[in-house]
Design goal:
three-stranded antiparallel sheet; single chain; rod-shaped; mainly alpha; 92 residues; 3 helices
């Protein structure tokens, strides 16, 4: 007996278990696709909104927002970047 014969016998004997497993995999794949599509749509919408504002850089006040990955204030221009010391002084 090879492995495919064993798998086929198990699938024939446990039909409900097989159907539920296939259904679970299909639901998981659909949920993953939905979440990835939602993320892409949200990201493109945010990029369009930022681009329509006309500014290249948004300054974030040091007292209102700190990025947990950096100990410095950040600037937002379609992505997060740390401000250098000279730019930080310019924005204060």
């Amino acid at each position: 007996m090879n492995i495919f014969t064993i798998i086929g016998d198990g699938m024939r004997r446990r039909k409900i278990r097989t159907i539920l497993a296939v259904l679970g995999i299909a639901i998981a794949a659909a949920a993953l696709y939905s979440l990835l599509s939602l993320k892409d749509g949200y990201e493109s919408g945010m990029r369009k909104e930022i681009a329509s504002m006309g500014a290249q850089i948004f300054a974030v006040a040091t007292s209102t927002m700190h990025c947990p990955m950096f100990s410095e204030p950040i600037a937002i221009s379609a992505s997060l970047i740390p401000l250098s010391a000279s730019k930080r002084e310019k924005w204060r």
